[in-house]
Specification:
heterodimer; A: mainly alpha; MetI-like fold; B: mainly alpha; two-stranded antiparallel ribbon; 14 helices; 2 strands; 1% strand; flat
């Protein structure tokens, strides 16, 4: 993260100092330095291609026409002329954007479902998780035989619960409660799945805030909750953002529960993408446009908020 | 964790007044009585004692919510400061308990019954029949075996992720660009990845990777025809999305190692290779174990890609437990049997994770 402090190659010396010729050992060192540079950047570039090519492929394919797909053309404007074919089938190309379109209405509905469900679930998880993590980091609890360590473990152990164990009981329960195919049902379930991660991150965050701050606030006459809300919460915002973003990524992409528990009203974008893949027939441009639209929000989030995502994942890794 | 008392010492004088405590108790017990009454009334209708005209169990749900709120509020009224502290943890505990413990208990009941949602007979208790059926179900055992293979792939993922973390930790320019680029696959939904890679890039005729395969001399590139290749392909796709995850954790670990340690090793004459194996790698052991365990947890949930790309084929070679149960429900509406398989899977996971966590604890305990 700091400015790069790579050892500069030796040729930056002024030319007139040629009487001081580089010793044999120095030259060997310089050769080794260059080899390692080439190897490092070579490996970095190879993996960059591995990581980015599928995204590039999907985005460009959404602008291709049938012959371009068959011929495997890769570079727009060089190999092929970009067309709006894929986006037109979604009703999102410039010439169709003004007209009513069923695929677009469908897409926007799913998009809205995804957005509402993932934002609400992440928000709820951050609220519940932050409160619990704060309590566990500051006070000693006892629920029967359970103490703080056990309660923390109880929360974190939810992480190993595979979704498939909950899926069928939830299916039956939601049917009885008329929560099947509703956004509320999905929000509750998604909150449950990301809560352990939020608690994991927030515990780390609160542990890094010194107790003396609240003690001072308490001396000044604030209550426990007053101190938490006015003093500690503002300091914990970076951790909360990290937890929120990470939850957002997980819930936006969630497919398994959404596929089982929703059918027409509340289904999310991944379900729509999956239902299109099922029908074979190479309508590649339309699928590419749909996939691009589904991944674009998170790619933007990833590029803009990369710092927070990394922070969230690194929390707890280092103790 | 903290061994005894609170980390934050609070001295308060607000001993709850008697009237408030009584109000709190009344709230809790009153709402509990309401919950019991509503639940009983609905159960009565369910068993056909009387008909209240209710179609769903929503009233019970609302009564439960009322009780949960009253419980939280009552804590504050009865116990004053201690109750106010309990209020930090109580909502999350109530939430998790009601959404996991209750469904799990319910799940055990379902697992021991013959229940096909598409058959008109409804749920019938059938004891251990489902377990007997599982014992002789070759597809389930096959799926479990596949999970072992998938889990072993984590070793390769770990090696690649460690390599990438070392690269990002080296002194390079445009570090932020590379970090973002490496992170992006993690942002993508597995379903989109199934189409982007599984269905289009690996398409045997026009997909760019199939073209590459042909250019390299593979006559008939087909990524999902042969069982072994299909499994490797699924592993590679899953690795592609999740390598960034391990990479970030390992990178955080590398950045936490003080530079002096590596410099000291260099001064002592350790080459880069020996310096890595004798200094960096042992120091990274705790982070590595954490990263691998978390990765394993996510790996055991692997399903989306399999469901969308191969649906378990060819011949169950790529099936995961989750995708198998998913199809058991989707194609055959077999709730009872599917739940039993899931429960058995949960028990296996808990055993394996407990053993692994104990082993990990022993391996990373600081040696003196």
């Amino acid at each position: 993260m700091s400015a790069d402090t790579a050892a500069p190659p030796a040729e930056t010396r002024p030319a007139e100092a040629a009487i001081f010729r580089d010793a044999e050992a120095d030259l060997r060192y310089r050769a080794r330095w260059w080899t390692s540079r080439v190897a490092i950047y070579g490996a970095l570039l190879i993996w960059t291609v591995v990581a980015l090519f599928p995204i590039y492929w999907t985005v460009t394919t959404s602008f291709k026409q049938a012959p371009d797909v068959m011929q495997g053309n890769l570079v727009p404007w060089v190999d092929f002329e970009p067309a709006w074919l894929g986006w037109r089938s979604l009703g999102l190309s410039p010439d169709t954007i003004g007209q009513p379109s069923t695929p677009r209405a469908e897409f926007l509905k799913r998009f809205a479902n995804s957005a509402i469900v993932s934002l609400a679930a992440s928000g709820l998880a951050v609220v519940l998780g932050s409160l619990a993590a704060y309590g566990l980091s500051r006070f000693a609890y006892r629920f029967g035989p359970l103490r703080n360590g056990d309660i923390s473990f109880f929360f974190l152990s939810q992480l190993i619960l595979p979704p498939v164990v909950l899926a069928l009981p939830f299916l039956v329960l939601y049917k009885a409660l008329a929560l099947l195919d509703t956004r509320v049902g999905l929000i509750l379930l998604y909150t449950l799945t990301v809560l352990p991660i939020v608690i994991w991150i927030m515990r780390d965050q609160f542990a890094g805030i010194p107790h003396e701050l609240e003690e001072a606030a308490l001396v000044d006459g604030l209550g426990t909750w007053g101190a938490f809300l006015t003093i500690i919460l503002p300091l914990a915002v970076p951790g909360m953002v990290a937890a929120f973003i990470l939850s957002l990524v997980l819930t936006w992409n969630e497919y398994f529960f959404a596929a089982l528990l929703t059918s027409t009203h509340a289904n999310t974008l991944p379900v729509m993408v999956a239902s299109q893949t099922g029908s074979q027939g190479i309508n590649w441009w339309a699928m590419a446009a749909l996939s691009t639209a589904a991944i674009l929000p998170l790619i933007v989030v990833g590029i803009l908020l990369e710092r927070f995502i990394i922070r969230g994942m690194a929390a707890g890794a280092v103790k | 964790m903290n061994a005894g008392g609170d980390l934050l010492h609070v001295v308060t004088s607000d001993e709850p007044a008697r009237g408030r405590a009584a109000l709190g108790r009344a709230l809790i017990w009153g709402s509990a009585a309401l919950l019991a009454a509503v639940a009983l009334a609905q159960a009565g209708q369910h068993w056909g004692w009387w008909d209240l005209g209710l179609t769903t169990w929503r009233p019970t749900l609302y009564a439960y919510l009322t009780w949960a709120v009253a419980l939280c509020w009552g804590q504050v009224l009865i116990r004053g400061e201690a109750g106010r502290r309990a209020l930090f943890v109580l909502p999350a505990v109530l939430f998790v308990v009601s959404l996991t413990v209750f469904p799990l208990l319910f799940g055990v009941l379902i697992a021991l019954s013959d229940w096909n949602l598409s058959s008109p007979t409804g749920r019938r208790f059938n004891g251990l029949d489902n377990i007997r059926r599982m014992w002789t179900d070759p597809f389930y055992w096959n799926a479990l075996r596949n999970m072992v293979w998938y889990s072993l792939a984590i070793v390769v993922e770990y090696a690649i992720a460690f390599g990438l973390a070392l690269l990002l930790h080296a002194e390079i320019r445009a570090r932020r660009f590379f970090r973002v680029a490496f992170l992006l696959p993690l942002m993508l939904s597995p379903v989109a990845v199934s189409w982007m890679i599984g269905k289009s890039m690996l398409e045997p005729r026009f997909g760019p990777l199939a073209r590459l395969g042909r250019a390299l001399g593979w006559e008939q590139p087909s990524f999902f025809g042969d069982p072994l290749i299909a499994r490797l392909t699924i592993m590679a796709m899953d690795a592609w999305t999740f390598i960034p995850f391990m990479m970030i954790m390992l990178l955080a670990g590398l950045q936490a190692i003080p530079r002096e340690v590596q410099e000291a090793a260099r001064v002592d004459g350790a080459s880069g290779w020996r310096g890595f194996w004798e200094v960096t790698f042992p120091l990274m052991l705790p982070v590595s174990v954490t990263a691998i365990l978390i990765r394993l947890i996510f790996k055991l949930k692997l399903a989306d890609i399999v469901i969308n790309v191969t649906a378990g084929g060819p011949g169950g070679a790529t099936d995961t437990v989750t995708s198998f149960i998913f199809r058991e429900y989707r194609d055959r509406s077999n709730v009872g049997y599917g739940t039993l398989l899931a429960m058995v899977y949960l028990v296996l996971i808990v055993i394996v994770m407990t053993v692994l966590m104990k082993l990990a604890e022993r391996a990373t305990r600081p040696r003196t």
